[in-house]
Amino acid sequence: MNDIAIISIWLPFVGTALGAACVFFIKRSRGRGLQNALTAFAAGVMLAASVWSLLIPSFNASANMGKLSFLPAVVGFWVGVLFLHLTEKMPTAYSRAMGDNGLLVLAVVLHNIPEGMAVGVALAGAMSAAGTLTYAEVLVLSIGITVQNIPEGAIISMPLGAAGGSGRSAFAYGMLSGAVEPLFAWLTVLGVGLVAPLLPYVLGFAAGAMIYVAVTELIPRSAKNDGGDGGIIAFSVGFCVMMVLDVVLG
After folding, report:
1. Which of 15, 109, 248, 250 could bridge to 149 as Cys pair (CB 3.0-4.6 Å)?
2. Does pTM top 0.85 for this prediction?
């Protein structure tokens, strides 16, 4: 495996870490205003990412199914929703330790799995005898995911920091949420024949999980504590930022 392949696998993790590092550079505040804005911003990012980064690619990956190309996305979506619902009803030691942000971290982790798989599938294509992709194309895909991961790392670390948590622990949670990407990229390269057919379902699964968290946790939490227009503005900014990144870099 050459240097470009290794860089392509690890770059998305670096992007998540850079986003998580925002907690060190933005002025700490324990006030509800900042926390509500970050929560609403995170909801906007997650909803946009669910559509443009997950559901639409799931449809495209199932295009060979014709009019039934929606099926993997719908099946995966409902499995993701039900999985998060059951997770919320049966708290684990992990979610208790994370408090109210446990499902947020879990949803972003689940979102990062298909992104890692996407890099792995592309890399497997470049490494195959047929050479369906070039290493340069794989690197471009990885760079696009890396840039998208910066706000995703931030939407974990910044709310945790604004809520009064340790900056180091907030950064660690944000950074580690991206650790699944290189892991699943490697696993996909090793077992691309088994994993690739599941990618449309995994994309739908991650979309269901992220939308569940945005609708049941983030939006109600922000609306409950926000007495003005700050929440909807922050939500709209987050949605537009992620939408633009997904379209431009997708």
Report:
1. 15
2. no
